[in-house]
Amino acid sequence: MQGVECEDLRKSYGEVHALDGISFAAEPGEILALLGPNGSGKTTTVRILTTLTTPDSGRARVAGMDVVRHAARVRATIGLTTQETVLDSFLTGREYLEIIARLRHVPRPRQAREIAALIGEFELDEFAHSPIGGYSGGMRRRLDIASSLIGSPAVLFLDEPSTGLDPHSRERLWEAIRRRAHEGATVLLTTQYMEEADALAGSVIVLARGHVIEHGTPDELKDTIGGRIVELTLADPAQREDAIASLPELGEPSPAAERPETLSFVLLQSSQPLLSILQRLETDGVEVVDVIVSRPTLDEAFLHLTRRADVLVREPAATEVF
Amino acid sequence: MHASRGQAWADIVTLMRRALIRYQRRPDVIVFILVQPFIILLLFRYVIGGAIRIPGVSYVQYLTPAVIALAIINASSALGGGLTEDLVSGTIDHLRALPIRRSAYLTSRVLFDIARNLFVIPLIGLLGVAVGFHLSGTVPNIVLAVALVLLLGVAFAWISILIGLWSGSIEATQGILVLVFILAGFLSSGFVPPSTMPSWLRGIAEASPVSHVDNALRVLTTNTSGPVTHEVVAALAWIAAILFVTIPLSIRRYSRHAQ
User: In the predicted model, what is the mean pLDDT of residues B89-117?
Assistant: First the structure.
């Protein structure tokens, strides 16, 4: 198969199992998002697929070629944007793109045309002849992404591509990514922004501690948690603990609600009806002044999934995810 | 599928162009490479040299060839720091994901250093002449002398690369390379004859590749007689041995970094 395919990838660094048996596939024209907290194995997966490191076991193919046995051929078909955007500060943006175009062996007559098109697409015209050292973080990011698209690679790997971009640039980036997928490229992106996966990806893989814990479309992921989030507003914040105690089967409230008088729970398909929850609270003397029921965002689905997998350490994850 | 041989050369030329643009935009780098040996030459010629007597030769004649060799060793130490910077910043990961040979980047850096040293050598030589050095070697001998210094530069460039690739931080690389520079430069026949050193040190200084190069340079550039063939052969053997060890280790480290 063209696109990306991996089977039971494993990779350990000493005692740490960075990847503990990862399998998935993405077809040409597909945008696949890898979600997961830091340390879940996203970057290791990308590093294996882009030949920067080798798996301990398992197999991976990119554009139909084995990433270990045919690493050199794989490199000729991929574009990569890594998380650390450090570019040669002394080069101008155009010079940088020219050097990458040559090293990617884009035929000479096509180089100038492609570079001009990318400079326009990523709105770099104004700065194309200035040294990269004077660029803002967002401009560097755009240049870096533009450079990974030179030569129209068949498979694109974008490691957290929209980090540091303003909303306008992010929209432009998303358009650029969709255009490449529409033209037949396979796109694999990692992201911390669920909104990004929701907006772009046809399928999402949730990673935690080196395992694939969920695989589906963004809508399917939202459905796996039962489709409803209920947020209760209490008359008296002091009754918070009482409310939690009288609803033991709902578990701990989600950390998403920050005000002391609100409690947010995930309602699973198997949960009892909302009405009986409210009745029980009334019986136990907890006064509820407002109830909001909503469909979960992908953020909430993601948090729920990773919590359910008992792999998310709450404090660091909460800061990393939001 | 590796790129063809022609393509591999084109990649190296592209990467050398990148290094050239860097030098054009950052002239301070080349100034730094020249200023240090200039100061050492002036210090030893005028401050320290007056107290040094070497039988049969004026000190400026003895000193200048050694400063040229030292300048080239010093210049190659800039390479290691640059490589650590490229490793830490992720530039090398960027390059490793491109369809170019694993040796292309390191080769381009070394070739660029050779080209740069071709400018550095005559400049230091000219300053030597300005402070009293008398160049009297035949043209073939001077060409041989320059070639020998360039090869010494290649050996130290690969030492510098290897240290740069193994070190975890730019500070560590620079610290180690300054040590290498001082020990290699001064623990040799470069500034005083090893016969004036304690016997245990004399053996080390006499065996040093830098000493063999320095001794050969003195004979080749000043048309004096001396056991030059032996010195050239010994220097070449040293350089070959250094390259034999450092090149494979460096390319291996470059290819498998951070697995």
Answer: 91
**Contacting residues of B for A102, CB less than 8 Å apart:** 10-11, 14
pLDDT of residue B38: 94
A145 three-state secondary structure: helix
Task: Using the Cα atoms of residue B207, residue B211, residue B217 and residue B220 in order, give the sign of their dihedral.
Answer: negative
Structure tokens at A54: 């080798």
Distance from CA of A178 to the nearest CA of B (A): 23
Buried/exposed B122-148: b ≥16 CB within 10 Å, e otherwise? ebbbebbeeeebebebeeebbebbbeb
Residues near A129 by Cβ (< 8 Å), separated by ≥ 6?
Answer: A92, A93, A94
Q: Which of B21, B96, B99 sits opposite A95 (nearest CB)?
A: B21
Question: For residue A84, how many other CB atoms are within 10 A of its CB?
Answer: 12
Q: What average pLDDT does this structure show over A237-242?
A: 83
Confidence of residue B181 (pLDDT cuts 50, 70, 90): confident
Q: What's residue A311's pLDDT? A: 43
For residues A54 and A68, what is the distance between their CA atoms, to the nearest angstrom?
7
Helices (H), chain A: 42-49, 71-75, 93-103, 108-121, 137-148, 167-182, 194-200, 218-224, 240-246, 274-283, 298-308, 314-321
Which chain A residues touch B108 with a CB distance below 8 Å? none
Q: Residue A164 — pLDDT band, cuts 50, 70, 90?
A: confident
Position B244 confidence tier, pLDDT thresholds 50, 70, 90: very high
B21 CB neighbours in chain A (<8 A) are 90-91, 95
Cα–Cα distances (Å) from B160 to A16, B23, B36, B110, B113, in that order, read 33, 19, 18, 10, 12
Average of pLDDT values for A131-148? Answer: 90
Please state, in angstroms and rounded to a whole number, the distance separating the CA atoms of residues A13 and A283.
54
ipTM of the shown complex: 0.84
pLDDT in tens, A30-81: 999 998 877 888 989 999 999 999 999 999 999 999 999 999 999 999 999 9
Inter-chain touch A82–B96, beta carbons under 8 Å: no
Domains of chain A: 4-221 (3.40.50.300), 223-321 (3.30.70.100)
Answer whether A3's CB lies under 8 Å from A186's CB: yes
CA closest to A100 among chain B residues? B98
